[in-house]
Amino acid sequence: VQLQASGGGLVQAGGSLRLSCAASGFIFSSYTMCWFRQAPGNGREFVAASRWSGGITPYADSVKGRFTISRDNAKNTVYLQMNSLEPEDTAVYYCAAKSKYGSGLYAPADYNFWGQGTLVTVSS
Fold first, then answer.
1. What is the CA radius of gyration of the chain?
2. Helix (H), strand (E) counts: the chain
3. Torsion sign, CA atoms 42, 98, 76, 59
């Protein structure tokens, strides 16, 4: 199993970035995919999830209206489009995968597989 996150970098406040997470080694379409983030000194925080079954897409309140999660099952890839970035969005962003048979959605412990993280730095 592998989750390879990419797309992080340094951007000015108000700018945009698009993160990608390429998955392999499991049946992507049967997994809920999620983005978490972790700022220095903080715990891992839920950002957004794309359910394997579709439906309503949950977002953290702090990113609603600015971030959009999407997935391409044909490419085994999940994306996070981040617009209107703020310095408070600075963090390492992780993608994660949760089996459709698992419970929960918002806690890191709910997820089976994790990517290595990609650093997003937003300057003021």
1. 13
2. 0, 10
3. negative
- The two structure tokens encoding residue 68: 């959009």
Give tens-digit pLDDT for 18-42: 999 999 999 999 999 999 999 999 9
CA-CA distance, 107 to 44, in Å (whole number)?
9
pLDDT > 90? residue 55: no
CA-to-CA separations, 76 to 11, 24, 41, 71, 115, in angstroms, rounded: 27, 7, 32, 8, 14
Parallel, antiparallel or unpaired: strands 9-12 and 118-123: parallel
pLDDT confidence of 96, banded at 50, 70, 90? very high
Q: Residue 56: its pLDDT value, please?
A: 87
Identity of the amino acid at 113: F
